[in-house]
Every structure is written in C-alpha cells, then in structure tokens.
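Q&A log
Question type: sequence-to-structure
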Amino acid sequence: MKNIYKLFGGLLIFSAALTSCDDLERYNVNERDITDAQLIPDFQIVGSKFKPMFQNIYQYEPAWSFQLQQNLNADVYAGYLTNPRPFVAGANNTTYNLVSGWNNFIWSVPYQGVMNWANKIKKLAADYPTMYGASLVLKVEGMHRVSDVFGPIVYTNFGDLEKAGIYDSQQEAYNAFFADLDTAIANITANINSDRFVNFDLVYGGDYSKWVKFANSLRLRLAIRIAKIDPVKAQEEGEKALSQSLGLIDANTDNFVVKGGLPHPLSIIDNSWNDIRMGASMESILVGYNDPRAEKYFVELNPKAVDIQPISPGNLKGIRAGLPLISGYADEIAQKAAYVGFSAINDDIHTSNVQLMTASEVAFLKAEAALRGWAGAGDAQVNYENGINLSFMQHGAADAATYMANNTDTPADYVDPVNASNSITAMSTVTVAWDAGASNEEKLEKIITQKWIAMFPDGQEAWSEYRRTGYPKIFPVVSNQSNGVIDTNIQIRRIPFVDSELSTNAANVATAVTLLGGPDNGATRLWWDTGGSNF
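Response status: OK
Response body:
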C-alpha cells in the first residue's frame, strides 16, 4: 500500500458494499447468460463456487485488503512482523488505537468470500454431497479464524431468513465447527474416490483422502484451542481426530497450501510497498536460538537503505511493534526511511502459494495433546522433535539435530539502533532442547515457541495461540494508545465488532456483546482465552 490514506476514506463504503444484498445479487449475475443446465455436465454448477472460497480465507487481491484483514493486526500482534511506517501518525491498530474502517475487512472478506459461497454450495448438497463436504471443511477453516478475532459470530444462522444476523456465542460456534467437520468427513468418506472435484481443488487436486486428513488436523487444532476452557469436549474431539482411520497431515506433501496462481499479498506489501518488516520478537527468538530457518524466512538488513550508523551488514534486524511517530522525524515517510532497510521477508515465503496448515503444526498439536494425556497422541518429545524436523525440511534448513540438542541458547535481547529507548531485554530463558524433567508448563512453552516459529507467516494462528497460552513471550507495544483500555503487558485480546455490523445489525450485535462476558473492546478475552496457568 503506497499510501494507505488514499484508501481510508472509501473503506467504510467499500466494506458495506461487500455485505449488501444488492451487491451479492450483482455478483451472482451470469454475464454470458449460461444456464444451470449448461453448468451441470462438467460440475461447474458447484465447482465454480470453490475458487473464491479458497482465495478469501484471507484475500489475495487487492493486496491492501489483506493488509487490513490480517497484516496490520494479527501478523503484528503475533510478534511476526512490524510496519516501518507509523500509519495515521502512529495512531493505528498496531498502537491499539483501533481503526474501525480497517477492521471491517476482517469481518466482511470471509463473509462475502467464504460463507456466501458455502451457503450456495449447501443448496446443492443433495446432488453433490462429497463436494459439499469439502466446502464445509473450507468454511470451518475460514470462519474459525473470524471467531478467533471477534468471539461470537453469525454462523449457524447465516442464510436463514428468519434468524438472519443472530450471533452464536463462541462456544456455540465451536460446537458447530465440530459438527460441520463430522458431516464433511462422513460425506467425503462415503464416496472418497469421486473425481468430480479434480478441476476445482486448489490444494490437493481432488484427492479426497487428503481432505479427510486436513479435516482431522483442523479438528485437532480446534480441540487444542478449547482445551483450557472445556477440557472434556476438547479431549473428546481431539481423540476423535487422532483415531480417525485416514489419519492427520503428517508429511509436507500433505500441507494445506492454496495454489491459486495469484501473487501472495505479502510479496506486494513487503517488496513493492516496503510496508512490512521483521518483528523484534521474531529477531529475538530466531537470532537467539541461532535458528537456521532465520535466513529462509528473512533477508539480511540493507545497510545502504538504513538512515543510521553504525550498523553491521549481514545481520537480521526486526522492528518493535506499536511505534508511534517519533519526535525528530518530520513525518511518517521520514521515519519509515530509518527502518525500511531492516529485514524484509524472503521471497521463498511469499510465493504464490498460501500456507494455512502444515505437518509441523500438526506434530506440535500432537505434542501438546500428549502432555494433556489424550489417547492416540503418542509421545510428547517425539512429536516435538518431529515438528521441528518437518519445519526444517519444509524450508530446506540444515542441521535440525544440532538445533534440537541446543540446551544453552535462549531468546536474545533486542537492540534498536534507530532509537535506543525501544531496546528491550528478552522475555524468556527457555531453550530448544527437550527436558524430560521439566514441568508441563515449561514443556508447553517449548512446544508453542517452536510451533510459532514453524507456522510463519500465518499470523492469525500465531496470535490465537499466543493469547491462549501466553507463549512465546513476545515484546509489548512501544506505544499503547488505547487510553487505558488495553493493558500493555497483557496485550490485545480481540477486535471489537465492526462498523458495518453496528450500522446494519445493531440489535443482534448488542446481544452478541452480552455473550462476550465483558465490554466490546480489545481487552476482553475470548471464551477460550482463560489466562493463567495452562495446566
């Protein structure tokens, strides 16, 4: 985004248009007047509805839409990335001065691009039950992320004219996610060799056995997510995933990576606009551990582009999150110039393929499930080390064995060479090597820290896991502009309900707020975000 201000004035209008009924009808018009009968023989009548679902879990294009949907919130809140330019004179999402016009995209994009099309496929479920099953898995993947931002969402009542706009509590939404995964797996396994999906599947090329593995893995992710708030339901769903006959994602060839052929939005935000760079927490952890994946994720800083001296070339350098407009810089652009030479994302990360779940994440899920005593999870250490190995293999990093044996290196202190007041001591002393004698809490910190590294660049999942567990321990924002609403050390917990809903669905939003258990602001914890000890 070369200039976010050019967009800001029209964001509310555009966001409202995304969800208006007239707009949905406009998108449904067939410009060539092709009839449903003509679309049936090659399954286009249902298959054509999948591409927008794949490409709107987060939106590929325009890139500024993804920038508002995830990059300037979850990617930063997770500690992965930071914007070198202090947008809106430093008063923006990253400093907890939440910009409601930006946040509309977190809500509107998946409702228009995922829920809308899933609802259309549902109407064809009787004739295309297996493809309907795949659409349910996609719907759960897209919409659990929305719930993990806001809490209550419109899910079970979506498309119901009598109950339109009525929210589910987050607990109700999660129960519905599990039920939809049940239906999906039943439908797919009933005709698992069907070839109808081949031309429409942007992940597995129509291989339904891999869709079941993904559905099982997604169930395990969601079960772990609720393990603290509802341990009985969590274990029931987790063990269901662990025991399903087709198994889980256990190899990088089965990773859920969308191959849409479009430029990854991060490549534009990072390369073309220079609007995002490595986060300070990522530097602290990767550099502190001498992690070989660091050079696979990020490039060395460019000393010629950095408006400071001295700084050694060949380093990885991140930026503290939540930077205000610093005194001494004339404007945002001048301040950006001081930081823009810090570490950008390696082009190997922002290819045209978009990663949403990997075998390494699943191995770490199993490691935590083992700590919690779930049947079928295996051994926690074996799963932990397998997760690291899978991540190293995924990124072509060498010497995982030496890395896993490292019981001395810890996250590094962060030094800001632009502004020394932003420097900060490392938040953790946890090492990489497994310690069988450690407490479950310390073991979990190791598991989640390595899982956090492995899930990059999916900041949405990383932020959710940070809120659930408190790990890894990431640096707080430099400038908290929430007027005391959000605690700097506890950090932001959710995004408030958005303007487009407040203006068109106010009564139901008011009811949804009562389901939160707290005020509609960024400090209120979600249902599964209990705080405190993890065991």
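Response note: Residues 2-31 have pLDDT under 50 and may be disordered.
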